[in-house]
């Protein structure tokens, strides 16, 4: 399992792992892939700086990346208090009423972990500035092409830029804007995702941007067989996010609170829903009583980014503290149906490589 992506990023296997956990990201990097740390949870640049210091010290000198959330169009911003003024009272009343009906107890909100301001363009830029002071080899943007000056800034530090695309036309635009790697993310994926399935999207993107631009397959990948399929469709590697949520390293990041993992391990591939209730943009989430409440008659329309995340941030904290797996608020892809046990990252990486080899051997025997 070796492609030109390995040469481009200095990794052993063309497996890129997006994760909000520095423990998972470091473990993937140490195992030969590229761990990519999600930065949106960092409201303060100093907290990200400290975490990347830890990454530098715990990745054995191997490359890693970061993922930012930076809209291509710079939105109107303000302080948390100023933004809060734009949230309609009826939305706040709905959230409060829903939490009561779900039996979620009240807890003291923690502004340090709310993940609210991390959705702002200005904060995302600070994430880029901090990251370029560290040993990152890739900056990925979850919302498409970053502004041209950010791409130039990364390139001046020898850092590659990746952008997610849900349509072939978006992929072409990313390349024209100077993006180095396109992540073709299919409908099955967790988090922000488009409407075209991976099997259809991936070859369309590869054909659109040409074989000179590395394309990563994302969405519905959780086995070596699926990695082999992605490469057969023209990808240079895979981008995996959901699959790492049920690792022992992620459990460590959650202070050994296993409620979320209990919910994921019990779920099937049918137990997800695509909704704007998490961030204001369409994202695939685990289907729970919390997501069901937003689909009931009379539920308000989700607000645009970043107001929706600001609205539900405290609710997400209370849900996490409730230790009730039936109300978990968590982005995850349809691959959740394969996430049936909590296992170490190294074990998952070894299995992916082994299954890939078996799949290629089977294909060779069909000649």
TrEMBL record:
Key words of the record:
Dioxygenase, Flavoprotein, FMN, Oxidoreductase
Name of the protein this chain belongs to: 2-nitropropane dioxygenase NPD
Q: Which InterPro entries match?
A: Aldolase_TIM (IPR013785), NMO (IPR004136)
- One annotated GO molecular function: nitronate monooxygenase activity
| Lineage of producing organism | Bacteria, Bacillati, Actinomycetota, Actinomycetes, Mycobacteriales
* Protein source organism: Hoyosella subflava (strain DSM 45089 / JCM 17490 / NBRC 109087 / DQS3-9A1) (Amycolicicoccus subflavus)
Organism superkingdom: Bacteria
For this protein, the record's Pfam families field holds:
NMO
